[in-house]
Amino acid sequence: MHILVTNDDGVNAPGLLALAQALQPLGKVSVLAPDRNWSASGHVKTLHRPLRVSQTLLADGSAALCTDGAPSDCVALALLGLLPEPVDLIVSGINPGANVGHDVTYSGTVTAAMEGAIWGLPSFAFSLDTRENGPSLLYYDTAAKIAAQIVAVAVKNGMPQNVFLNVNIPNLPASEIKGQLVTRLGLRIYRDVLVSREDPRGKPYYWIGGEAPTGVPDEGTDIGALAANYASICPVQLDFTAHRSLDTIRAWDWQKAG
Prior knowledge:
The protein is α/β, with parallel strands linked by helices. It is built from seven helices and eleven strands. The protein has helices spanning 14-23, 71-82, 103-106, 108-118, 140-157, 222-227, 246-250, and strands at residues 2-6, 28-34, 53-57, 63-67, 89-96, 123-129, 163-170, 179-182, 187-198, 204-216, 230-237.
Protein backbone atom coordinates (compact mmCIF):
# COMPACT_ATOMS: atom_id res chain seq x y z
CA MET A 1 0.00 0.00 0.00
CA HIS A 2 1.34 3.41 -1.03
CA ILE A 3 0.29 6.27 1.26
CA LEU A 4 0.60 9.95 0.38
CA VAL A 5 0.99 12.21 3.42
CA THR A 6 0.41 15.94 3.10
CA ASN A 7 -0.75 18.86 5.25
CA ASP A 8 -1.53 22.58 5.20
CA ASP A 9 1.07 23.75 7.76
CA GLY A 10 4.14 23.16 5.65
CA VAL A 11 6.45 20.23 5.08
CA ASN A 12 8.46 20.91 8.26
CA ALA A 13 5.44 20.82 10.60
CA PRO A 14 5.85 18.39 13.53
CA GLY A 15 2.36 16.99 13.03
CA LEU A 16 3.21 15.82 9.53
CA LEU A 17 6.37 14.08 10.73
CA ALA A 18 4.53 12.27 13.53
CA LEU A 19 1.84 11.15 11.09
CA ALA A 20 4.28 9.94 8.45
CA GLN A 21 6.22 7.92 11.02
CA ALA A 22 3.09 6.34 12.52
CA LEU A 23 1.83 5.23 9.09
CA GLN A 24 5.04 3.46 8.05
CA PRO A 25 3.97 0.03 9.37
CA LEU A 26 0.95 0.19 7.04
CA GLY A 27 2.91 0.58 3.80
CA LYS A 28 5.19 2.81 1.79
CA VAL A 29 4.86 6.47 2.82
CA SER A 30 5.57 9.36 0.45
CA VAL A 31 5.44 12.97 1.62
CA LEU A 32 4.46 15.84 -0.66
CA ALA A 33 3.45 18.97 1.25
CA PRO A 34 3.44 22.74 0.84
CA ASP A 35 6.68 24.63 1.38
CA ARG A 36 4.86 27.12 3.63
CA ASN A 37 1.74 27.49 5.75
CA TRP A 38 -1.55 27.28 3.84
CA SER A 39 -3.92 27.24 6.82
CA ALA A 40 -7.52 28.22 5.99
CA SER A 41 -6.70 28.00 2.29
CA GLY A 42 -9.80 26.03 1.35
CA HIS A 43 -10.06 23.87 -1.74
CA VAL A 44 -7.57 25.33 -4.20
CA LYS A 45 -6.57 24.28 -7.70
CA THR A 46 -3.67 26.32 -9.07
CA LEU A 47 -4.16 26.79 -12.81
CA HIS A 48 -2.74 30.23 -13.65
CA ARG A 49 0.90 29.85 -12.67
CA PRO A 50 3.47 27.05 -12.70
CA LEU A 51 3.96 24.88 -9.64
CA ARG A 52 7.50 24.34 -8.37
CA VAL A 53 8.49 21.12 -6.62
CA SER A 54 11.73 20.51 -4.74
CA GLN A 55 13.31 17.79 -2.65
CA THR A 56 13.80 18.23 1.08
CA LEU A 57 14.43 16.25 4.25
CA LEU A 58 12.19 15.87 7.26
CA ALA A 59 13.55 16.28 10.78
CA ASP A 60 14.21 12.52 11.03
CA GLY A 61 16.28 12.58 7.84
CA SER A 62 13.68 10.95 5.61
CA ALA A 63 13.18 12.27 2.09
CA ALA A 64 10.18 14.39 1.15
CA LEU A 65 8.93 16.65 -1.61
CA CYS A 66 7.57 20.16 -1.18
CA THR A 67 5.79 22.54 -3.51
CA ASP A 68 4.72 26.17 -3.60
CA GLY A 69 1.17 24.97 -4.27
CA ALA A 70 -1.75 24.41 -1.92
CA PRO A 71 -2.50 21.17 -0.06
CA SER A 72 -5.03 20.11 -2.71
CA ASP A 73 -2.39 20.85 -5.37
CA CYS A 74 -0.07 18.43 -3.56
CA VAL A 75 -2.61 15.65 -3.93
CA ALA A 76 -3.30 16.47 -7.57
CA LEU A 77 0.40 16.61 -8.44
CA ALA A 78 1.03 13.22 -6.87
CA LEU A 79 -1.94 11.57 -8.55
CA LEU A 80 -1.26 13.13 -11.94
CA GLY A 81 2.10 11.37 -12.12
CA LEU A 82 4.65 13.34 -10.14
CA LEU A 83 5.10 10.23 -8.03
CA PRO A 84 6.01 7.33 -10.31
CA GLU A 85 4.27 4.73 -8.14
CA PRO A 86 0.44 4.81 -7.94
CA VAL A 87 -0.96 6.15 -4.66
CA ASP A 88 -3.52 4.05 -2.80
CA LEU A 89 -4.71 6.48 -0.15
CA ILE A 90 -4.35 10.06 1.05
CA VAL A 91 -3.68 11.11 4.65
CA SER A 92 -3.57 14.81 5.59
CA GLY A 93 -2.42 16.34 8.88
CA ILE A 94 -1.87 16.40 11.74
CA ASN A 95 -3.21 19.94 11.96
CA PRO A 96 -2.66 21.94 15.17
CA GLY A 97 -6.22 23.09 15.86
CA ALA A 98 -9.52 21.30 15.40
CA ASN A 99 -11.34 21.32 12.06
CA VAL A 100 -14.96 20.87 13.03
CA GLY A 101 -18.32 22.03 11.73
CA HIS A 102 -18.08 24.63 8.97
CA ASP A 103 -14.28 24.59 9.31
CA VAL A 104 -14.27 21.82 6.72
CA THR A 105 -14.94 24.42 3.99
CA TYR A 106 -11.95 26.55 5.02
CA SER A 107 -9.39 23.99 6.08
CA GLY A 108 -6.49 23.12 3.82
CA THR A 109 -6.01 19.96 5.86
CA VAL A 110 -9.55 18.84 5.12
CA THR A 111 -9.61 19.88 1.48
CA ALA A 112 -6.47 17.84 0.77
CA ALA A 113 -8.51 14.81 1.85
CA MET A 114 -11.42 16.12 -0.22
CA GLU A 115 -9.18 16.20 -3.28
CA GLY A 116 -8.24 12.58 -2.65
CA ALA A 117 -11.90 11.61 -2.42
CA ILE A 118 -12.60 13.39 -5.70
CA TRP A 119 -9.99 11.08 -7.25
CA GLY A 120 -11.80 8.09 -5.76
CA LEU A 121 -9.16 7.22 -3.17
CA PRO A 122 -9.67 6.50 0.55
CA SER A 123 -8.79 9.81 2.19
CA PHE A 124 -8.40 11.10 5.72
CA ALA A 125 -7.88 14.45 7.46
CA PHE A 126 -6.48 14.51 11.00
CA SER A 127 -6.48 17.47 13.39
CA LEU A 128 -5.45 17.93 17.01
CA ASP A 129 -7.80 19.94 19.21
CA THR A 130 -5.32 22.55 20.40
CA ARG A 131 -6.75 25.78 21.75
CA GLU A 132 -5.53 29.30 22.32
CA ASN A 133 -4.26 29.77 25.90
CA GLY A 134 -4.42 25.99 26.32
CA PRO A 135 -1.62 23.58 27.24
CA SER A 136 1.64 24.27 25.42
CA LEU A 137 2.37 20.52 25.09
CA LEU A 138 1.01 19.07 21.86
CA TYR A 139 0.35 15.32 21.88
CA TYR A 140 1.19 14.65 18.24
CA ASP A 141 2.55 11.18 18.95
CA THR A 142 -0.68 10.12 20.65
CA ALA A 143 -2.74 11.59 17.83
CA ALA A 144 -0.56 9.88 15.22
CA LYS A 145 -1.06 6.46 16.82
CA ILE A 146 -4.83 6.99 16.82
CA ALA A 147 -4.63 8.17 13.20
CA ALA A 148 -2.78 5.03 12.11
CA GLN A 149 -5.34 2.84 13.86
CA ILE A 150 -8.24 4.66 12.18
CA VAL A 151 -6.63 4.39 8.75
CA ALA A 152 -6.01 0.65 9.24
CA VAL A 153 -9.60 -0.03 10.31
CA ALA A 154 -11.08 2.04 7.46
CA VAL A 155 -8.91 0.36 4.84
CA LYS A 156 -9.76 -3.10 6.21
CA ASN A 157 -13.49 -2.40 6.01
CA GLY A 158 -13.45 -0.44 2.76
CA MET A 159 -14.24 3.27 2.50
CA PRO A 160 -17.50 4.32 0.80
CA GLN A 161 -17.09 6.07 -2.54
CA ASN A 162 -17.12 9.88 -2.53
CA VAL A 163 -16.66 9.97 1.25
CA PHE A 164 -13.62 10.92 3.32
CA LEU A 165 -13.06 10.87 7.07
CA ASN A 166 -12.49 14.09 8.97
CA VAL A 167 -10.95 13.13 12.30
CA ASN A 168 -10.38 15.40 15.30
CA ILE A 169 -8.42 14.17 18.31
CA PRO A 170 -8.31 15.70 21.80
CA ASN A 171 -4.96 17.20 22.76
CA LEU A 172 -4.55 14.85 25.68
CA PRO A 173 -2.34 11.97 26.76
CA ALA A 174 -3.60 8.60 25.58
CA SER A 175 -4.76 7.66 29.08
CA GLU A 176 -7.24 10.58 29.10
CA ILE A 177 -8.80 9.96 25.68
CA LYS A 178 -11.97 7.94 26.27
CA GLY A 179 -12.18 6.40 22.82
CA GLN A 180 -13.57 7.22 19.40
CA LEU A 181 -17.03 8.25 18.26
CA VAL A 182 -18.48 8.40 14.78
CA THR A 183 -20.10 11.82 14.58
CA ARG A 184 -21.81 14.39 12.37
CA LEU A 185 -20.59 17.94 11.80
CA GLY A 186 -21.47 20.29 14.62
CA LEU A 187 -22.29 23.99 14.71
CA ARG A 188 -19.19 26.17 14.72
CA ILE A 189 -19.57 29.70 16.11
CA TYR A 190 -17.28 32.33 14.61
CA ARG A 191 -16.50 35.64 16.27
CA ASP A 192 -14.75 37.36 13.40
CA VAL A 193 -14.34 41.14 13.42
CA LEU A 194 -12.98 43.51 10.81
CA VAL A 195 -9.86 45.35 11.97
CA SER A 196 -9.14 48.48 9.91
CA ARG A 197 -5.75 50.20 10.02
CA GLU A 198 -3.68 52.60 7.96
CA ASP A 199 -0.24 52.09 6.48
CA PRO A 200 2.46 54.81 6.83
CA ARG A 201 1.13 56.48 3.68
CA GLY A 202 -2.38 56.78 5.01
CA LYS A 203 -3.90 54.00 2.92
CA PRO A 204 -6.29 51.65 4.72
CA TYR A 205 -5.72 47.93 5.08
CA TYR A 206 -7.71 45.27 6.85
CA TRP A 207 -7.34 42.19 9.01
CA ILE A 208 -10.03 39.63 9.70
CA GLY A 209 -9.56 39.27 13.44
CA GLY A 210 -11.61 38.45 16.51
CA GLU A 211 -11.71 35.79 19.17
CA ALA A 212 -11.07 32.13 18.45
CA PRO A 213 -14.17 30.27 17.25
CA THR A 214 -16.13 28.06 19.60
CA GLY A 215 -18.87 25.51 18.97
CA VAL A 216 -22.08 23.99 20.28
CA PRO A 217 -21.16 20.69 21.98
CA ASP A 218 -24.30 18.78 21.01
CA GLU A 219 -24.27 15.04 21.57
CA GLY A 220 -23.45 13.15 18.40
CA THR A 221 -21.42 15.98 16.86
CA ASP A 222 -17.69 16.37 16.35
CA ILE A 223 -17.68 19.30 18.76
CA GLY A 224 -19.56 17.31 21.40
CA ALA A 225 -17.18 14.37 21.09
CA LEU A 226 -14.11 16.55 21.65
CA ALA A 227 -15.76 18.23 24.63
CA ALA A 228 -16.24 14.78 26.18
CA ASN A 229 -12.60 13.79 25.45
CA TYR A 230 -13.40 11.44 22.57
CA ALA A 231 -11.78 11.45 19.17
CA SER A 232 -14.34 12.36 16.52
CA ILE A 233 -14.58 10.42 13.26
CA CYS A 234 -16.87 12.29 10.89
CA PRO A 235 -17.63 10.91 7.42
CA VAL A 236 -17.93 13.79 4.96
CA GLN A 237 -19.55 13.32 1.55
CA LEU A 238 -18.74 15.16 -1.65
CA ASP A 239 -22.40 15.49 -2.64
CA PHE A 240 -23.35 18.90 -1.22
CA THR A 241 -26.90 18.70 -2.61
CA ALA A 242 -29.58 19.63 -0.05
CA HIS A 243 -31.68 16.58 -0.89
CA ARG A 244 -34.37 17.35 1.70
CA SER A 245 -34.98 20.72 0.02
CA LEU A 246 -35.27 19.44 -3.54
CA ASP A 247 -39.04 18.85 -3.54
CA THR A 248 -39.72 22.17 -1.82
CA ILE A 249 -37.69 24.16 -4.33
CA ARG A 250 -39.06 22.20 -7.29
CA ALA A 251 -42.55 23.26 -6.22
CA TRP A 252 -41.75 26.96 -6.56
CA ASP A 253 -43.19 28.72 -9.61
CA TRP A 254 -39.97 29.51 -11.46
CA GLN A 255 -41.80 31.40 -14.21
CA LYS A 256 -42.90 34.25 -11.94
CA ALA A 257 -40.38 36.65 -10.40
CA GLY A 258 -42.85 38.65 -8.34
